[in-house]
Structures are given as structure tokens and as C-alpha cells.
Design brief:
210 residues; alpha+beta; 6-stranded antiparallel sheet; two-stranded antiparallel ribbon; 31% helix
């Protein structure tokens, strides 16, 4: 039986909700009903997803990204520029951490022991190196039970990068998991050659330890 990873309540038909792995406002259409209850999902949308949207708004406008659930027909107008000042960086950090937890629980069933999220902004430029600078979203997840570390790297629009330590008490199986998403065309990218995938994991691993 699935549980809300935020409040630990059992999920059922009366409290389930669709939760996007990456927020819908950032162009993502990948979602699951096995992550958050409706109450936690709605609270996160009001409090932290909006902060992340505000942080990413210049790129959303620049690349004319439509929210996944939007039915609007008037296109966004490009507006190149640097990101707007973040009024509440803590909320943005929480939104990035939530994206990592979403991805972990979407791909894995085992609960995270004593989650201790810690975020460090750092851009690796994976889109520039591997996908000809296209504005893709990346989530890279590394779990090492020997070091008891569960860490992730999130890159949004190929423009903003974040290392996130999710837990220092990780004891489940070793994992190396990757999501590459094209927010402009609403599709997951799954055809990276294996050598490139290995290089991505190596770069994230080295970047975390540095």
C-alpha cells in the first residue's frame, strides 16, 4: 500500500492526487498518484512550487514553455535575461529537494531512512555537454549503501544546477538513476548512449565529492 512520503498517511482513492515529478509549471508531464496525498500536494503547490516557478520564469518565457496542464492558446513571449531575484530562497531549495524525493519515490519503493536534505547550488552544464545546449531538465540520483549516502543532482533548463544530499543513512541497494526531460516538447529523453550515461553519473559523483 502506497503512503504519502511527506505525512506517511496511507494513500487511497479519497486522498490520492497527481503529483508531477518536476512541477507542471516547468513543462513536465510525468506524474504519479503514489507520492503525495492531496493535502500535502496542495500545500506544496501553494508554498514552494510557486517559488520555483518564479525562480525559473525567465527561462519559461525565453523558451516559451507551456505548463503541462495548460490549455491556453496565446503563446508566451520570449523574454531573455537572468533569473529574477529569489524572494524566498529557502522555498526554492525545498522545491528542488521535493523534486528529488518525487523522483526517488517514483523509481523506488524503499523509504528513505532519516532524510536530511541539504542543497548546494552548482551547475554542471549537462545539457551543454551532452545535448547540444538544448534546455532540458535533468535529475541524477546516486545511492551508495557503503557510504550510506543518497545524493541527487537537478539541472533545470540547462541553466540552473543543484546538488542535493537526501540522506546520510542510506542502506538500501546501490542505485544510479537518470531522468532527462524536454520541457518544450513534453517528452522524456531515453536514447542517450550508454557511454554518455556513464559519464553523467561519473560527473555527478565527482561533483558531489568536490
Amino acid at each position: 500500500m502506497a503512503r504519502c512520503y511527506s505525512c506517511n498517511n496511507t494513500l487511497h482513492k479519497n486522498n490520492q492526487s497527481w503529483e508531477h515529478i518536476i512541477p507542471s509549471a516547468l513543462g513536465s508531464s510525468i506524474k504519479s498518484r503514489r507520492l503525495l496525498c492531496r493535502t500535502c500536494n496542495e500545500a506544496a503547490g501553494r508554498e514552494i512550487d510557486k517559488a520555483l516557478y518564479d525562480f525559473c520564469k525567465p527561462w519559461i518565457l525565453q523558451y516559451q514553455v507551456q505548463p503541462a496542464r495548460s490549455a491556453r492558446t496565446d503563446p508566451f513571449q520570449p523574454c531573455p535575461g537572468t533569473p529574477l531575484p529569489v524572494k524566498d530562497r529557502e522555498q526554492v531549495n525545498r522545491a528542488i529537494s521535493k523534486t528529488c524525493f518525487n523522483f526517488y519515490y517514483w523509481k523506488n519503493r524503499a523509504p528513505i531512512s532519516e532524510p536530511t536534505p541539504l542543497l548546494c547550488p552548482h551547475l554542471l552544464g549537462l545539457s551543454t555537454e551532452f545535448l547540444a545546449s538544448r534546455p532540458f531538465h535533468w535529475i541524477v540520483l546516486l545511492g551508495d549503501p557503503l557510504c550510506k549516502l543518497l545524493v541527487a543532482y537537478v539541472e533545470l533548463f540547462g541553466e540552473a544546477g543543484f546538488f542535493v544530499r537526501l540522506s546520510t543513512h542510506y542502506t538500501e541497494r546501490a542505485i544510479r538513476q537518470l531522468l532527462v526531460y524536454d520541457p518544450c516538447n513534453k517528452q522524456q529523453i531515453g536514447n542517450l548512449p550508454e557511454p554518455a550515461v556513464c559519464r553523467v553519473f561519473d560527473q555527478v559523483g565527482r561533483g558531489w565529492h568536490h
